[in-house]
Amino acid sequence: MAKIIIKKELCKSCSLCISVCPKKILVLDDKLNKLGFLPVKVVNEKECIGCQMCVLMCPEACIEIYQDE
Ligand code: SF4
Ligand code: SF4
What we know:
Layout: E1 2-6, H1 16-20, E2 26-28, E3 40-42, H2 53-57, E4 63-67
Bound molecules: iron/sulfur cluster (2 copies).
């Protein structure tokens, strides 16, 4: 299991992270951030395999993944 941190205020709703996540656990939230975008949120963090695909794809550097020891 990995810990996912999303800086919601930086997200621009491009959905690139959603499209590459092999576990399909990232979705757009239903509440706008301060930039006026719907930020990404995690629906089932326990399913995350820590592959870092979302981190690599995000052009805004919104996502950080930490592997549990
Ligand atoms: S690290 Fe991999 S499994 Fe976890 S949210 Fe990102 S893309 Fe999905
Ligand atoms: S890739 Fe980054 S900016 Fe794009 S939706 Fe995902 S978290 Fe937001």
